[in-house]
Amino acid sequence: MHLGQPARSLVPTVDAPVLLALHGTTRPLTGRRLAALAGASHTAVNAILGRLARAGIVLAERQGSAVLYRANRDHVGWAVVEALAGMRQSALDVMRAELESWQTAPVTALCFGSFARGEGDEDSDVDLLLVRPSDVADLDDTWDRQQRALSDLVQRATGNDCQIMDIDLPRLLQHVDLDDPLVSNWLHDGVLLSGIKLAAAIEMASAQIRTTS
Q1: Contact 148, 116 (CB under 8 A)
Q2: pLDDT exceeds 80 at position 66
Q3: Taking the model in full, what pTM does it have?
Q4: 195 has which bridge partners?
Q5: How would DSSP label each residue in 33-52?
Q6: Do 99 and 193 touch, CB atoms closer than 8 A?
Q7: Per-residue pLDDT tens for 38-58?
Q8: Is the model's pLDDT at 212 over the cut of 70?
Q9: Helix residue spans in the chain (DSSP H)
Q10: Across the chain, which distance is largest between two alpha carbons, in Å?
Q11: How far, in Å, are 4, 105, 121, 127, 197 from residue 189 at the CA level?
Q12: What digits encode the pLDDT tens for the residues 89-101?
């Protein structure tokens, strides 16, 4: 899946960003504005808008010398656009549902990296962080089986490889103490999938250290 613009995995032409731009607003927009939002040439976007208007997916209204376009959300084909626009959220929902079924739940599970930021392409990995509970060993069979199932599911759902970073609470605190840039990435760009927020997990790890010291 194209991690930056998932819809382009199914609609690789400029049609995808044009449709997504129309999906994102109820305001009528000029072809020039839609071209800017889609990151494509005005000529190419005007041709696409003309075709979509003839198909009825887009409504065109002339105002003076300008033509304004808006989505026809009553069109039977608009459900396909809704599905395209929801591909990223659907992938996150699949991950959340899998994590909710786990016998051993993570303290925190989040998606980070290019997918979390809405960047990347078909060759990008889906990066996940799993923070293990303190009572789960490094080589716990149940935990390892769950990780493999999650990785396989993400690959099937997106077509992208899944890279899982598996750490326990003490190692999480080590990353924080070392000012690892990854921590900033996790805190600012991470999308929570399961468990508590990462900031709360860091507080939990600090409290455990204070208790045992």
Answers
A1: no
A2: yes
A3: 0.87
A4: 108
A5: HHHHHHTS-HHHHHHHHHHH
A6: yes
A7: 999 999 999 999 999 999 999
A8: no
A9: 15-23, 31-38, 42-55, 78-85, 87-100, 114-117, 141-158, 169-177, 181-189, 198-212
A10: 75
A11: 14, 22, 17, 12, 12
A12: 999 999 999 999 9
